[in-house]
C-alpha cells in the first residue's frame, strides 16, 4: 500500500508539480491550498508525511506545525520556505519540523528528502534492541523497539527524529559525541554542516526529560566538543 503524503501549498503550480512527481515515485498525495484545510486534513487523513509551506493563507505553516505538535501528532513534517532565511529554518525545526527545504528546489531533491525522512521514521522504533527490554537511567525508561519513553512512569511524546536522537545518545552513554557525529548518525545525509539542527533537537529532548534544562542531568554539554548522555547520580 503506497504511503500517503499531504501537500499543504497555496501556489497551485508548485502543489501540482510536487504531486505529479510524488505520484510518479509511487506515493499517494492529498493537496490542501491553505493552512486551515491542511491542518484539518492532517488530523482526519492521518498521512505518513506532510510537506508544509511556510507562507499560507488562513493559517501559516508555523501555526500548522505548532498546532499539530500540540495535538501530539508526530507525523514527519518537511517545511518549505521561499525566503531562504536562516531564522525561518531554525524556527521550523524548533516547532517540530523534521526537515526543511528552500525554494526553488528540484522535484528529484524533494523525492529524495521525503524518502530519507520516511526511512528514518520507519526505522527509529526498532533501533538495535532485542525484545522489550528498555534502557533504564534512573526514572527514565527508553523502549527502542516500542517507540516509547517513560519518565516517573509517565509516557512522553516524541517526534521520530527526537526519538532516534535520544536512542542514539543512550546507546552511546558516557561517550562524548560531536555535533557532526550526531548529524551523520541520526540525519544520515548532508545538512551542509548545519549543526544548529542538533542543538535544536537536544533542546527539545531536554525540555521533555530534564527537571531543570539549565542544569541537565541526562544530556550534558561538553563545551567545545558536543554532548554526552549520562546516567544521573544517585542522591
Give the key terms.
235 residues; alpha/beta; Rossmann fold; Arc Repressor Mutant, subunit A; 2 domains; five-stranded parallel beta sheet; four-stranded antiparallel beta sheet; 8 helices; 12 strands; 21% strand; elongated; Two-component system alkaline phosphatase synthesis response regulator PhoP; two-component regulatory system; cytoplasm
Q: What does the model show?
A:
The protein is α/β, with parallel strands linked by helices. The protein has 2 domains: 4-122, 3-Layer(aba) Sandwich (Rossmann fold), CATH 3.40.50; 135-229, Winged helix-like DNA-binding domain superfamily/Winged helix DNA-binding domain (Arc Repressor Mutant, subunit A), CATH 1.10.10.10. The protein is 40% helix and 21% strand. It is built from 8 helices and 12 strands. The chain has helices at 12-24, 35-45, 61-70, 86-94, 107-123, 160-171, 179-187, 196-209; strands at 4-8, 28-32, 49-53, 77-81, 99-102, 135-137, 140-143, 148-151, 154-156, 176-178, 219-222, 226-229. It has a 5-stranded parallel sheet with strand order 2-1-3-4-5, sandwiched between helices. Strands 6-7-8-9 form a 4-stranded antiparallel sheet, with helices on one face. Strands 10-12-11 form a 3-stranded antiparallel sheet. Helix 1 crosses helix 5 and helix 6 crosses helix 8 (196-209). The protein is elongated. The N and C termini lie far apart (52 Å). Mean pLDDT is 86; it is low at 124-131.
Amino acid at each position: 500500500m503506497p504511503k500517503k503524503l499531504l501537500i499543504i501549498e497555496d501556489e497551485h503550480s508548485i502543489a501540482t508539480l510536487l504531486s505529479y512527481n510524488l505520484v510518479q515515485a509511487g506515493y499517494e498525495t492529498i493537496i490542501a491550498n491553505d493552512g486551515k484545510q491542511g491542518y484539518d486534513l492532517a488530523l482526519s487523513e492521518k498521512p505518513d508525511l506532510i510537506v508544509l509551506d511556510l507562507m499560507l493563507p488562513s493559517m501559516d505553516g508555523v501555526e500548522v506545525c505548532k498546532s499539530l505538535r500540540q495535538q501530539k501528532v508526530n507525523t514527519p513534517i518537511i517545511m518549505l520556505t521561499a525566503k531562504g532565511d536562516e531564522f525561518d529554518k531554525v524556527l521550523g525545526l524548533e516547532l517540530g519540523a523534521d526537515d526543511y527545504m528552500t525554494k526553488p528546489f528540484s522535484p528529484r531533491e524533494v523525492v529524495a528528502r521525503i524518502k530519507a525522512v520516511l526511512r528514518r521514521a520507519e526505522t527509529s522504533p526498532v533501533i538495535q534492541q532485542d525484545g522489550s527490554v528498555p534502557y533504564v537511567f534512573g526514572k527514565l525508561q527508553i523502549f527502542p523497539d516500542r517507540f516509547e519513553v517513560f519518565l516517573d512512569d509517565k509516557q512522553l511524546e516524541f517526534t521520530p527524529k527526537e526519538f532516534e536522537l535520544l536512542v542514539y545518545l543512550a546507546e552511546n552513554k558516557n561517550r562524548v559525541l560531536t555535533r557532526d557525529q550526531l548529524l551523520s548518525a541520526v540525519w544520515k545525509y548532508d545538512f551542509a554542516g548545519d549543526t544548529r539542527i542538533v542543538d535544536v533537537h537536544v533542546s527539545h529532548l531536554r525540555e521533555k526529560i530534564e527537571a531543570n534544562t539549565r542544569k541537565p542531568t541526562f544530556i550534558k554539554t561538553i563545551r567545545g566538543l558536543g554532548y554526552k548522555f549520562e546516567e544521573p547520580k544517585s542522591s
